Predict the structure.
Amino acid sequence: MSNFFGSSIGKKFLMSITGLFLVTFLLVHLSLNALLLVPDGGELFNAAAHFMATNPLIKLMEPVLGLGFLVHIIYASILTLQNQKARGNDRYASGNNTKNVAWASKNMYVLGAVILAFLVVHIANFWVKMKITGDSLLGHTHITVAGVETQVENAYALVNGTFGMLWVVIVYAIGSLGLAYHLTHGFWSAFQTFGLSNSIWRKRWTVIGTVFAWFVGIGFTLIAVLQYLFFQG
């Protein structure tokens, strides 16, 4: 087993399985963030955020999610360095002029670096404040859960206040669109690694992956932009 994960295909397998795991997380995260656009003063978003923060299963999945990100980043770095070493000087001769290869496919590591920078900003602005340091905007508020008035942290106020800063919205837009480009290649590539892609399904996975990638990327971007334009004050 250790020989398998030490091989090139084993590394690609770990990259793919962690990538698809993170895709599931993206869908959950996008669904939660979409509640920011419900014009109820943040009550529904706060209820969902409270559920995510107090649910034992979600708490258990947090370190698993963190490990998934870490494994994905480490193996992406290893494979990129190995591929560059294997190509040697050929990569300088071909550059980005290789025909019939999508731009995202040739720049996955660069896109990954953009996403990592975006992730750091996200963690610093939200996760750290909600889990460790606290923030003045995270005052308590009351919501109604199943007919019962419940006191929760005002996560909506923190997110809304953060998206009131133009530079944060710009970073989110760049990071989200970088994520979309990354997913256009990563989605179908994962299924190819699992052996679920032939001449017919390769085209189908490419279309499905492209639609999914831009749905996620544009979705996150729109949420940040709409919060900045219409939900402040």
Observations:
- The chain is about 75% helix and 5% strand.
- The radius of gyration is 20 Å.
- The chain has one domain: 2-230.
- The CA atoms of residues 184 and 212 lie 8 Å apart.
